[in-house]
């Protein structure tokens, strides 16, 4: 296990880390319904309180934070872990929201794509055209689970479309360094897929056994589920892996480069910061911590910040 430096603790199921230009890291606390800035040495401050279930988070080209709000979970606390457990009793749908990180204002951009209700938006990535892709993980109920897909939207709230359907509870999403591949990790199948991107918001829907045009990259065996993901500058895909507790680093050709253990069975996300993008920030959601570690390879600079 690598040396992990604790940035913040006592967080209520943190996810969606965003390394900010000022050196802080902003995360969501899904169970608490809030967005939190972490300065290190345990210092934190509330950025906004959107409620529901704030999940994936990204910094947009306008300096605003864009949030996937899944609408909320119920939770179990057992064995020293906080564990999501089905849709919140108050759940009525999911949304995409825009948050001003300075003022803390929250604006809802999307709740539907046409007639399709957003069920549980989960992870988000901007492209170099200024739009963003996001997954809808759906919701799990006592005897049913949503069938959901992948969406593309404009940051100004003017357009949203469903780009791929159906998928099995898609979670992590990210773009290759050249922007020509869209990677998607499914949670319960523990499979990583890619789509060929043909234009902003458009995927090659060619023939495949999946019916969506997705190409298989990698599947985890054993006691594993996939959560969110990040992409290295090299093109490797780093998938947060639940169960075994760590980061599965997968090459574009499907080889497992390495598995980085973290010690938390609910390891949920990774991003990179620092001048050389060699500092990895990882959310350990079960134990409520944000940690950092020196990464073997640099992370990929965000597409929308290179515009």
UniProtKB/TrEMBL annotation:
Residue ranges of domain SMP-30/Gluconolactonase/LRE-like region in the record:
13-284
Pfam annotation, one family = SGL
Q: What is this protein called?
A: SMP-30/gluconolactonase/LRE family protein
The organism encoding this protein is Sphingomonas tabacisoli
């Amino acid at each position: 296990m690598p040396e992990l430096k604790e940035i913040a603790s006592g967080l209520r199921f943190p996810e969606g880390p965003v390394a900010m230009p000022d050196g802080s890291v902003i995360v969501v606390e899904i169970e608490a319904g809030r967005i939190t800035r972490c300065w290190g040495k345990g210092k934190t401050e509330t950025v906004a309180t959107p409620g529901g279930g704030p999940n994936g988070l990204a910094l947009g080209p306008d300096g605003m934070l864009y949030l996937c709000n899944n609408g909320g979970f119920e939770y179990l606390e057992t064995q020293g872990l906080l564990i999501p457990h089905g849709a919140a009793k108050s759940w009525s749908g999911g949304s995409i929201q825009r948050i001003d990180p300075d003022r803390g204002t929250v604006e809802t951009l999307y709740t539907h794509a046409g007639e399709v209700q957003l069920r549980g938006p989960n992870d988000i990535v901007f492209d170099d055209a200024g739009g963003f892709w996001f997954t809808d993980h759906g919701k799990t109920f006592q005897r049913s689970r949503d069938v959901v897909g992948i969406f593309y939207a404009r940051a100004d709230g003017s357009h949203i479309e469903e780009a791929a359907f159906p998928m099995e509870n898609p979670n992590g999403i990210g773009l290759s360094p050249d922007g020509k591949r869209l990677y998607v990790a499914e949670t319960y199948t523990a499979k990583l897929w890619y789509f060929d991107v043909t234009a902003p918001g458009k995927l090659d829907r060619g023939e495949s056994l999946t019916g969506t045009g997705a190409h298989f990259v990698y599947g985890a065996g054993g006691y594993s589920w996939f959560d969110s993901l990040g992409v290295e500058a090299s093109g490797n895909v780093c998938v947060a892996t639940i169960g075994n507790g760590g980061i599965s680093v997968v090459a574009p050709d499907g080889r497992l480069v390495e598995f980085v253990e973290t010690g938390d069975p609910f390891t949920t996300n990774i991003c990179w910061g620092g001048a050389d993008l060699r500092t990895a920030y990882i959310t350990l959601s079960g134990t409520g911590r944000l940690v950092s570690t020196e990464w073997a390879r640099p992370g990929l600079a965000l597409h929308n910040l290179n515009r």
